[in-house]
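[scheduler] slot 2 assigned
[scheduler] job type: sequence-to-structure, two independent chains
[scheduler] chain ordering preserved from manifest
[runner] begin chain α
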Amino acid sequence: METEKNKYPEITLILIPPIFNSIDISSEEVNFISLPDIAISNKKSYQQKREKKIVDWAKEIYQKDYNGELISFLQKKSLIEQEKPLFIINYPRNQKQLDSFKNFLSDKKVNTIVISSVSDSVDEYMTENYIVCPLCEKIYRKKKDLKFLCPKDNLTFDWNELEIFTEFYNLYFSKNMIPVIRELLDIYDISSITLRNEEEVLNLPEKLLRIVGASS
């Protein structure tokens, strides 16, 4: 009889500061998913609550436990039965989610990749020149346009609104996800990728695909 551990593909958790998240990959070798993929109701909930400040909306969304939605997503997309490695980006992102998620991961083969920068100057440069979209959570270069149209979600945001959100998400990562990373260090093998400049941030998807190829 096939065991639960063998039923699932190898899982890799990618934990990355929001301002470095250039990961937008479609690959035949690996499945990449992130919280926006899992929480399919997020876009709808944001459309219904546009009168709310974006940070207040994000605080509500981030505190929820998405373990059930994750398992449903994997089953719906038939990702459980596939042999391709599964990469999960920035989840879990707080202690509550981690406590629940550890039960899901307990009998599965799990790796963790932590992405960081070589110095504060890289963080500062990216923050000065890029924003994070609240819905797709990808980075985009700042422009002088009055509005930002997310190419993935087709929703518009004020640039000032996005700068406020980006600052919030970066602080949220430091406060909530750094402790998650520390706890994962005690449970799983962790490898790291260090980014030295903007070019390496933008080329991160290719680097991850090379890692996948090297391990396959």
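[runner] end chain α
[runner] begin chain β
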Amino acid sequence: MQRSGFIENTQPILSNVSTAARVLPESSSIISSIAPQDSGGVVPANPCSDSMLSPSTVQSKLKNLNPSYEQQGKEQLQGIENFLLQSIDNGSVDIVQSVQKVLRTMKLLDDNNKWVIEGIDNINIESMDKDTLKQFISKATQSLQHNDFLLYVLSKLPKNPDILTNRQDVKESTEDLFTNLIVKNYVIDQLTKVFENNPKMFQDAIKHWQSVRNDNKWEIVKSWPITDIPKILFFWVKLFSVEKPVGDVVQQKIEQNELPEDFCKFFLQLNIFEAQIVDHFYLGHRDNAHAAHILNQNPIDSETNPALGTHKPYIKDNEVLVTSPLPKLWADLYQVWNGTFVSFDKDFSWVGILAAPEVSGYQDNPGKYIVKRATQLYLNLISTSMEPLSGEDTVHYPEHDQIPWLKELGGYVSETAKVYEEMVNEAKKELPVNDATNTPHFT
């Protein structure tokens, strides 16, 4: 198992971002009906829904950069979807066996394919087939087409979806490679859903993985090549910096306490900052690092502010909901920034979990995005960390270091980040001003 990779950044939380940075008010020209009112700590069910954001401003700004971005981006998405659906149809993968293999790797099934976590057997493995995967892909595509920033970035890429197969040293057929990849992302997506509704079960799983890791430290360590020390360090820092906030979320769900006003804020910024450092100094992708900087300038808000479309962190129906200013657009930008960051890792599953419906389907309530994103990231980190212990032939991910267009992605993402920043600045101008200090008034 010689894979470590630049794992994406998850839900973030780090630097000492200035208070002013979180002032992303959405003015009436940006938000037509604003989000939650603070009514004794009770927040409406769907604060900050996509319908509250006027897309016209975003779209007009992006059309100034590429008038046909929306059509071209959707055509790209459709081409990728068709490619993946054909891979599933033409592949020879036994879906049930592939699902079992992923779960054995994650140490959730034993060698006899029996569940090791009590209650998790409500995932019906035997019913999974090619149609299950195709529905999964189509649902992901439907969610992704609502991200204008993503459509813009896709519109700038080569128009041939076969670029996905332009790789070397792939032991499986192209169809089987991508089918196995889709299976892994589907399994993680389903686990996200199950664990979200069963926090105690998730807590048991976290303790189980920690125990396995502690009992097999040396075997895990010696499986990572010494030449990849920077990647190894980044991977393990990422794992522990994600495991802590994910565990905190689970504990809060179990206890059902009122969430602290700064809940998850530090770790979210920390995770973004980690990737920003790697992007800027290790990979040399300064444009993409700039997008991370803009995200971190606009962290989770600790107060309910209709002008910003934000609300205090709270729990509703086993979902922990937190928002950054202009929450839907923030999540859109995070998706394209993080997708670009992880596209440089040869393990395509880091990109795939961003597209999975449990993460990408945040349009109705962007407040759920960050926690779900963190959960899926954590599950993929667990899968990767457990591979040396699995005894399985893991998916042979293709090398793609020489694809020229990959290096151009950061520039396109930076353009979308500037659009987001412009909308923030425009919104700030429309905030009421505190006469005494001549500064925007947020309450």
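[runner] end chain β
[qc] chain β: The chain has 16 helices and four strands.
[scheduler] slot 2 released
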